[in-house]
Write a structure and sequence with these properties.
Layout: H1 15-29, E1 40-43, E2 50-54, E3 57-65, H2 69-76, H3 82-94, E4 99-110, H4 115-132, E5 135-143, E6 156-166, E7 180-185, H5 194-201, H6 218-223, H7 230-239, E8 244-247, E9 264-267, H8 275-284, H9 288-294, E10 299-305, H10 307-319, E11 324-331, E12 335-340, E13 343-346
Parallel strand pairs: 4-5, 9-12
Antiparallel strand pairs: 1-2, 2-3, 3-6, 4-6, 7-10, 7-11, 8-10, 9-11, 12-13
Helix pairs in contact: 3-4, 7-10
Length: 347
């Protein structure tokens, strides 16, 4: 009898409904772009960060959280790395418009007061800020026992907001056929797809167990901090020409269409399924197409660049000890087409 393969929707996350809701929010809030008495909105909802022109400078703003990765931290009773994730989820998006992160504020919501928990989270935030070369200038800590659910007394949620200053604006409008798509390695799942990853892995293993395709325990793999790409990307912007920058997060490679919807992203050099991605695919019986629509699959960041810039981009990431290689090209058309297991799939 045919068995239906598991999807992100089955785990409780319907990406289609989320995108519809996001579009509705974008339509509603767009009217506020006329409200400011000072400054001018250049780019709002729909890209990786909002842009506001203030005098001679352009400010980039973005807000994001860690998602259900915090539940893994609670199960592990380990909280010193999710702060890195929180910073990474914000700064890796704001650099996609060519902005250098300058300042960050955090929001920690707790079920009950817990000084040790806050100190560990703060330590991770500081490490993320150090890697991003920016300051944490404030935040909010809220105790919400009737709102915050989770695992035990250490239940919490974590989010933040980053402000950046645009050094070289990159929105993707210069992307054209013939450009090269370069992929930069991720450190693992980063902070997306955890609702599906947890449903698959934690229904079969405890956080302390090992699994066939993992080099660490399940919990350690799931808690691996998100890689921060600020330093190499800012150096790339300073030293060479690029046409687009994409943080591969929720929605995986479908995120590329944020940059420019009038071209086709042909991905024919994506890495094979290994490590935690292989473990999730095997244990969850998940279709290959669904995997590349949901997870970063080992590619945490993409750079779209002219062919003449590609080698220098690769060298710069290599200097920062991050593997970067061509994974595709730009063609005429629309959408994202990936070659997976020898077959082309529209993502």
């Amino acid at each position: 009898m045919f068995k239906k393969k598991m999807t992100y929707r089955d785990a409780g996350v319907d990406v289609g409904k989320i995108r519809a809701a996001q579009k509705s929010i974008g339509d509603i809030i767009s009217i506020t772009h006329r409200f400011p008495r000072k400054g001018r909105v250049l780019s709002g909802f729909g890209h990786y960060a909002g842009l506001v022109k203030l005098g001679s400078q352009t400010i980039a703003l973005h807000s994001d959280g860690v998602g259900t990765k915090v539940l893994v931290a609670q199960l592990m009773n380990k909280f010193d790395t999710v702060g890195i994730d929180c910073v990474a989820m914000n700064v890796n998006d704001v650099i996609c418009v060519g902005a250098r992160p300058v300042a960050f504020i955090d929001y920690i919501a707790l079920r009950q007061p817990n000084e040790k928990l806050i100190e560990e989270i703060a330590g991770g935030l500081v490490e993320g800020a150090r890697q991003s070369q920016m300051a944490i200038v404030g935040g909010e800590t809220a105790v919400l026992p009737d709102v915050i659910a989770g695992e035990g007394d250490n239940a919490f949620d974590l989010a933040g907001m980053v402000m950046g200053v645009v050094e070289r604006q990159v929105l993707g409008n210069s992307i054209k056929p013939g450009d090269v798509i370069l992929g930069v390695e991720s450190s693992g799942l980063h902070s997306n797809g955890y609702t599906l990853a947890r449903k698959v892995l934690l229904s079969k293993y405890s956080v302390d167990e090992n699994a066939e395709h993992l080099v660490q325990t399940v919990g350690e793999e799931l808690l691996t901090p998100t890689r921060i790409y600020v330093k190499p990307v800012m150096e790339v912007l300073e030293k060479t020409r690029v046409h687009g920058l994409a943080n591969i997060t929720g929605g995986a490679f479908t995120k590329l269409t944020r940059l420019n919807k009038n071209v086709r992203y042909m991905l024919d050099g994506l890495p094979s399924v290994t490590g935690i991605f292989k473990q999730i695919q095997v244990d969850g019986d998940i279709d290959i197409e669904e995997m590349y629509r949901t997870f970063n699959m080992g590619v945490g960041f993409c750079v779209v660049a002219p062919k003449a810039s590609a080698e220098q981009v690769i060298r710069i990431f290599g200097k920062h000890k991050m593997r970067c290689s061509p994974i595709g090209r730009i063609e005429k058309g629309a959408g994202v087409v990936a070659t997976l297991e020898g077959k082309k799939h529209m993502l």
